Amino acid sequence: MDWKTCCVDAVRRGKILEPPAFYAPATPAQLNEVEQTLGAKLPGDLAALLRQTNGLRTGDAPRGAFLVLDCEHILKAHAAHLEFLQLAGFAHTPPYLFFSDNGCGEHFGYEIEKGAVPHSRIGVYYPIENAFRIVAGDLEEWLSRWAAGALNT
Fold this sequence. Notes:
Layout: H1 3-13, E1 21-22, H2 28-38, H3 44-52, E2 56-57, E3 66-68, H4 71-88, E4 96-101, E5 107-111, E6 122-126, E7 131-136, H5 139-147
Antiparallel strand pairs: 1-2, 2-3, 4-5, 5-6, 6-7
């Protein structure tokens, strides 16, 4: 899939006012570092997007600066999530692979189960409730719905 075209189309059809900004592709070393740190292989759609552009930004303030985090920020989000779980006493909670947020504290990502991302579904994580709710069947659907303002978090 051509993720850059998909992103441009989703933004054009949606409510995000500024065009997306693309970056140099993630290197194999960056992708490997994310997988090693998470202890799970990246899902195919996210890995493909990162191989085309290491992150996706938009200047539209209500959505935040990142539409899709780059490898560095995926690692930072993961570390912050693990720290939060420990501080909040939610150590039993399974880890997640976060690749975006809504700017209000909730994060979008994939579930990690037994060292793998078992499906392409994307959910939103609510840290205060320590709850995860599926909001899209895959990354393409999530991107389209997020750009259109159709994801209720």
